[in-house]
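Progress report, Aim 2. The chain analyzed during this reporting quarter is listed below.
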Amino acid sequence: MPLGAIAPTSQLDSYLEEVHPLAAERWRIDFLNWITHDDISFAQAASERFHKAILGGGPHVMKLLLHKNTVRAWVKATYHERITDVKKSLAGARSKINLSFDAWSSPNHLSLLGVVGHFIDSERKLKMALLALRPLDGHHGHEIADTVQPVIRTFEMRTSLAPFR
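Predicted structure tokens for the chain:
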């Protein structure tokens, strides 16, 4: 479902759809790319300092100010839109799908596990896809396995090993 089709989550959604309907989707994508590629937190995107900088653009800019829940909703909607495409790519892989993991703690002290799939696609190109970024209860093997197993199920990957406990 395209982002333009989701229920508006803020004044910004309504404003973009009403005033700039053709540019609304492109703006959302550019904004989300900025957040994900530059590692901007939802709170930063909605911070008072950011708003103050934006407000320097004039009185109509007030309608563009974001709340962190709007950004979170946009990221979740985009993830759910694209998960089908990733599933199709993985299903069409010409190789086994190899997984790599990276565990770390975020600046707000949340332990996270990134799960990346590596495979040869249907056009024989090496591909990597971030499959998940999940909270992690600890850094022990069984905790990592408990976090990775639902990712394997979500992306409908078959395993050649015995299932995790």
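The CA atoms of residues 12 and 147 lie 35 Å apart. Residues 3-85 form one domain. These observations will guide the mutagenesis work planned for the next reporting period.
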